[in-house]
Amino acid sequence: MYDISQIETCYEFVSCVTFCDGHKSTFCKKEHVKAVGSDGLYIFTMLGSSEETVDGMAPVDWSDIILQFAKALYPITLRVSGQGNFMAVENFEELRRRWKEKCQKIIDYYNSSLIEEESQRFALVMETEDKFFHTLKENVFYRLFFWTVDQPVQQVVIRDFPSYARLAIFSFQEKKYDENGGLCYETYEVKDEGSGRLLSGHAKLRLSRDFDGLPKEIHLKARVEEAETGYFTKEITIKRL
After folding, report:
1. Which end of the chain, N or C, is less surrounded by CB atoms within 10 Å?
2. Which stretches of the chain are DSSP H helices?
3. Average pLDDT in the 60-88 region?
4. How far is CA 189 from the centre of its chain?
């Protein structure tokens, strides 16, 4: 699938949630990626994000703190097959050591028990390489960026949707191709984190690739109906710049 010897590129990531009352919230960032490889094995270095905004403004307060914890993870080095299968995290021990050092500086700076509690949510994921690997694979950016077509059922987990500490899991099966060769999916199969509050769901996914096999543009639109609340919509676009 890939035709890369060495490349560095950038992607725009936009995530917009429309709440049941019509209110919208949009998060934007730039993701920086390097890749080298040959003979069916590739090393991707995810360099991290920049130019983050929430509703057009720089993140502040809690949003900024969460972003600091996440950015402390980078760079992340991944081993990926020629078919796009995300196989392993290459630099986990170095990554964990670096994250712990940066995390402690964040905790010391804010000197808040709430900040320390939030850091533990990240620390749980960092306990083992296997746990971090599987958590990263579920992250919606990584899931869509390293999408493959060799599985009969593909799942996409959208976290903090329709609300904080919730999630929606969509299952995609039948794939189609559009007139430009882009890959398309549609599904009504959705489940939540176990609360049983989701009554229904619908999602469409469209992916296209560039000349070198890297994603060119990815668009996911998902809608869920929550009991006693209403409908929520999330649109995610990942576009190569």
Report:
1. C
2. 61-71, 92-110, 113-125, 129-138, 140-145
3. 92
4. 20
20-24 long-range Cβ contacts below 8 angstroms, 24+ apart = 20/226, 20/229, 20/230, 20/231, 20/232, 21/230
Q: 77 to each of 83, 84, 91, 133, 219, how far by Cα in Å?
A: 17, 15, 6, 11, 25
Contact 192, 165 (CB under 8 A): no
Amino acid occupying residue 23: H
Structure tokens at 237: 């676009």
- How far apart (Å, rounded) are the C-alpha atoms in residues 15 and 28? 6
- Given a contact cutoff of 8 angstroms between Cβ atoms, the answer to whether 70 and 100 are in contact is no
Query: What is the radius of gyration, based on Cα positions, of the chain?
Result: 18
- Res. 2: pLDDT tops 90: no
User: pLDDT tens digits, residue range 125-184?
Assistant: 999 999 999 999 999 999 999 998 888 889 999 999 998 889 999 999 989 998 888 999
Give 101's pLDDT tier (boundaries 50, 70, 90): very high
Residue 162 class from Cβ within 10 Å (0-12 exposed, 13-18 middle, 19+ buried)?
A: buried
Rounded to two decimals, the pTM is 0.93
